[in-house]
Amino acid sequence: MADEITLTYEHEGAFSAESGSTILEASLKNGISHMHVCGGNARCSTCRVMVLDGMDNLEPQTDEEKKLARKKNFEEGIRLACQARIRGDARIRRLVMDDTDAEIAVSTSGPGGHEERLAILFSDIRDFTPFAERQLPYDIIHILNRYFKQMGSAIIDNGGHIDKYIGDGIMALFGLNGEPDAEKCRNAARAALEMVRGLHDVNEYVEKHFGEKFRIGIGLHFGRVVVGEVGHPKHREFTALGDGVNTASRIESTTKKANASILASEEFVTNACDTIKVGRVFLARLKGKAERKKLYELSACNENQLDGVMIIRRYLKGKMPLTITPKILRLAFHEAMTRGEFSKALSDEEAMEQLLADEDNEGLAPAISFINEVADGVARHELPTISPSELIYLSGAVAVELTGGPYIPIELPIEKKSVVEPSIQSPGIPREMEGFPALLIRFRRAGLDRKEMVALTGAHTLGKAHGRQFTENPYRFDNEYFRRLLRDDMSLSLAMLASDREFLKDEKTRQLVELYAGDEEFFFNDFRNAYLKMIRMA
Ligand code: FES
């Protein structure tokens, strides 16, 4: 007789199930009308569930499940009930509850909705409506198609995706192929500049045949948006939704008043790093927003900024599995806090063995293997030169980016700004039970202040301690750890370091925790700056 285990369905109740049965079998046995449109053959995804607890008690994905999960771009924690066999207690949530849900799930051919950090472009022809009123319908369609051909080529040639045409307007997305954030913005900026240049060709034609000229406005923004297929099951379209899209559209509306062809938000300019050049700066109140927003007039692209470091970044992104990202980021911190002990030991097997035997460095061996592998690849493929220490820091930055965190613009060689005497003891790795004053002293020895200490601690959003992850998704970089800290959430299933809870006892650090918990963009900016300072001071 197989062991009995408990399977809890959120909002539905707890049921007993046989160890080794699939979740779907357990559901049906317990009289739960669990959707399974393809009959349990891993082809429809209507049986999918979110595993809230006990993921370790599920057998690994079958090949069939992996295939469908890849196709549908399942997030971490989503399993097919018809494939997942249970070996111990688990808590799940069913995601497809009725026939309408099932129809939607089956008719979605591509990935489901998910968040992406994208560059968004909106363009519009100024005063097109009065122009159209003076023309014949055939001429309007003809000239619009001529215009869209020219503008569309500028977008497509620069890696953009034309999301939709809105009358004479265009909405385009950049970054759907997982490029670094700076590249997403650089591509969007280059497309915008080419659109303005291409307008001259369109205008030669418009002037010759209609005696008029078009002027266009382009708005650029960078931010998180939700992308996915939306619409009636028989007519779906891929699109992006969210505040980021509205902001880009409103920036475009501001171009006329500012008498500028291309305006970009501060978020766009920050994430573009040095890949673009800007001119005039405006403060504008966008429709529906209470606060005035800083907007920059785009003047040019810096074409050389993608060389060197970007090539290695791309290589790292192609090589780094998501599951190793927390260890890589931790290695970057240990490299900085030990003033380069790890990079020095990379070529000395005995020294590395000793380092890894230290309990502070427990679990870092896979990250070291990864760095060694990448260093070999960099040499083999004759990629630009990078020192072992820089490779560790750049890998840490890529780990943050890959998990959805901020883009950290590392330039090579890293310009060191250490004001600390080399003879002074290195800061060392923060201890779990360390009190607040000792922690602060340790970070000060690393050249970092209180704010930078708190911002960097936000990295605990990734990974695990003592086998327990810090947040529900250990491979997503966000401000969830601060939110947990603030709630003083001591869930037994999640880890929380005593040293981090110390932040709540100090008025100033508590305020920082509150700030980061409430504003993710703020946290991302401070984390980016603190990380850059940490590696320059190390
Ligand atoms: S029932 Fe169709 S995928 Fe599980």
Automatic annotation (TrEMBL):
Q: Which PROSITE patterns match?
A: 2FE2S_FER_2 (PS51085), GUANYLATE_CYCLASE_2 (PS50125), PEROXIDASE_1 (PS00435), PEROXIDASE_4 (PS50873)
Name the SMART domains on file: CYCc
Q: Does the keyword Nucleotide-binding apply?
A: no
Q: Which domain of life is it from?
A: Bacteria
Please give, as recorded in its UniProt entry, the membrane topology of this protein. Multi-pass membrane protein
Q: Which GO terms describe its cellular component?
A: plasma membrane
Provide the Plant heme peroxidase family profile domain boundaries. Answer: 323-538
Main localization of the protein?
membrane
Where in the numbering of this chain does the Guanylate cyclase domain appear?
119-252
Q: Name one GO biological process term.
A: response to oxidative stress
- Compartments, as annotated in UniProt: Cell membrane
Instruction: Kindly state which keywords UniProt assigns to this record, in alphabetical order.
Output: Cell membrane, Membrane
Give any Pfam family that matches: peroxidase
A single Gene Ontology molecular function, please?
adenylate cyclase activity
Question: For the 2Fe-2S ferredoxin-type domain, which residue ranges apply?
Answer: 3-98
The protein's name in its UniProt record: Adenylate/guanylate cyclase
Organism whose genome encodes this protein: Leptonema illini DSM 21528
